Amino acid sequence: MLSLEEYARLDGLGLAELVRRKEVTPRELADTAFAAVRKLNPKINAVLQQLEKESAAEIEAGLPDGPFRGVPFGIKELICHAKGVSLDMGSRLAKGCVFPHDTELMARFRRAGLVTVVTTQTPEFGYNPTTETVLHGPVRNPWDPTRSAGGSSGGSGAAVAAGILPLAHANDGGGSIRIPASCNGLVGLKPTRDRVPTGPDASDPLSGLAIEGAVTKTVRDAAAILDCIAGPDVGAPGFIAPPSRPFAEALARPTGRLRIAFTTRSPAGGTIDPACAAAVERTAKLLADQGHELVDAAPAYDWSAFLESQHVIWTAYTALSVEGVARLTGRKPSIENLEAVTLRCWEEGKRWSALDLLTAQQHCNDVSRAVGAFFEAHDLLLTPTLAQLPARLGTIDQNREDLSAHDWLELLFPYLPFTPLFNVTGQPAISLPLHEHDGVPVGVQLAGRMCAEETLLGVAARLEEAAPWSGRRPPIHAAA
Fold first, then answer.
1. For range 357-386, the mean pLDDT
2. Which of 176, 207, 266, 431 is catalytic?
3. DSSP per-residue letters across 241-308
4. What is the value of pTM for the model shown?
């Protein structure tokens, strides 16, 4: 069996190569992953279920010959689900929910050869940039256990950063792939809207804001997993043009000289931590050194109106989620099974009219048109991923009884003012772990034009070469 240090050093494609060369078996890799869970999860609380019987049966049945054949994997307990595996969505209301079928995304993860060994934590119904639930307690950042591992894919982010998994499922409705990538020192690619399927149980979840994907250690894993999961499923409401060639091939192709805008000014008008601003400035210099044209610019839009549209959409979707789960479980929503803020969002979301929701969606269209015009003149936009360093645990509390649903929005969005824009526009965006400060990672975000994942991945690969992060590891790590 591989040592924990050897296992944790490699990305997913690196482990798959060992399986192909018959230097290790999928069963041995799964056993190593479970050993990492036993060693590390008591310290970070990222993993919920260990699927030892399920993964053994999957391996015994024979794994598809995909690019990640035999590689241990984890699924976040939200939206994507596996047949017969419970998912609680971070909520006491949903505890014990089990679906009798795989989602299409889950089926594609399996076809890629991945072996699902664990499930990972999420905040209640995903409406939180940190993962600290009443049901399971906080996920701790492996770089600093007093800080958040991010959200809403915080369990996946912490598990990959700590070396429990080489990559893990994540999804993103306002930054939930990119935020934990920034907090944990990982690559987090949010693909273009409708690039990855959400069926059969959801159709453009969160009014089209949410998209599925993964957090990875390397850019090459991000490209390879996107190749495995991209494309519409049966009956999908939207369809976008497929890439001209596999995303993985974009890593080796020159992007040419690009016009890249950058900004360290928050659209919310708040302050940016100097470390986050400095990360953007250093990245801008790296890009300029690589021959790109850098310009200080950012798209203009009305932040207050943007915030109001997000409030309507997020609370309406929370109401939909709570009502759906209540029907599945037979439980009545109450403060006994919902966190206080979630309860407020459910109550408020039920009050919106169809006109309120359509007005919010119309505002999203207006923003998308304005931002689209900005990207006519700029190939990419570089920003901080977060406005601050990873939050201290306990400072963003979804169970605070003194917060209204709108108070919650106003607490969250100034912390993450750069990520939600690209959920609204549907454009692809990626967080890269190019910097760190005070012992914790500091991510930078690059956003591209619609369907421009190839350009994003090509630029990201060159940055990974110029400022490699593979040698950095947190104090809480499988190899420690």
1. 98
2. 176
3. PPPSS-GGGGGGS---S-EEEE----TT-----HHHHHHHHHHHHHHHHTT-EEEE------HHHHHH
4. 0.98
